[in-house]
Write a structure and sequence with these properties.
Blueprint lengths: L3 H17 L2 E2 L9 E2 L11 H12 L14 H14 L3 H13 L15 H12 L4 E2 L21 E2 L1
Antiparallel strand pairs: 1-2, 3-4
């Protein structure tokens, strides 16, 4: 399944996908003038967001927390099909597809033309994780003295 290094790569690519799909509002009120990928890098994510995304993937490495007789095998099989279909850049595509699918952007795992039910399995899994709306914090990240109140200062988050 995934190694921890692969999970790190997928998370960075998912964060990149979140930034690429988060429009930056035009201060004059017209349509978006760009995307936050112009201002932030995936490494600028709040530590708590990176950890949360990492944990979502690492929990799929074992069957803890499942009902008796359940396994993550359909997910594992779907990931294998995905990796086989895309070869070396599969981690990049997987992270982006995860961001797109979980946020129901109209693209992602389901439209990759994966054989069998792999696309459906991965889509159902991504939807089960819930959407992640990117939040670019402003002034609210400091207290009255200007001290950071959480790990968001200078970072972006998603919930």
């Amino acid at each position: 399944m995934f190694t921890f290094e692969e999970i790190d790569e997928i998370v960075l690519c998912e964060l990149d996908g979140l930034l690429r799909t988060t429009p930056k509002p035009d201060p004059l009120g017209s349509d978006a003038e760009g995307y936050f990928i112009d201002d932030y890098e995936p490494e600028d994510a709040a530590d708590s967001l990176s950890e949360e995304l990492f944990n979502e993937l690492s929990c799929m490495l074992n069957d803890d927390g499942l009902l008796p007789g359940e396994t993550h095998q359909p997910f594992r099989d779907a990931v294998s099909v995905y990796a086989e279909q895309y070869g070396d850049p599969w981690l990049f595509h997987f992270g982006h597809d995860l961001a797109l699918t979980r946020n129901r952007h109209g693209a992602g795992f389901w439209d990759r033309g994966l054989p069998g039910d792999a696309g459906e399995v991965l889509t159902d899994w991504a939807h089960s994780l819930g959407s992640k709306e990117t939040i670019i914090p402003g002034e609210e990240c400091t207290d009255l003295h200007g001290d950071p109140i959480n790990d968001w200062a200078g970072k972006f988050y998603a919930e």
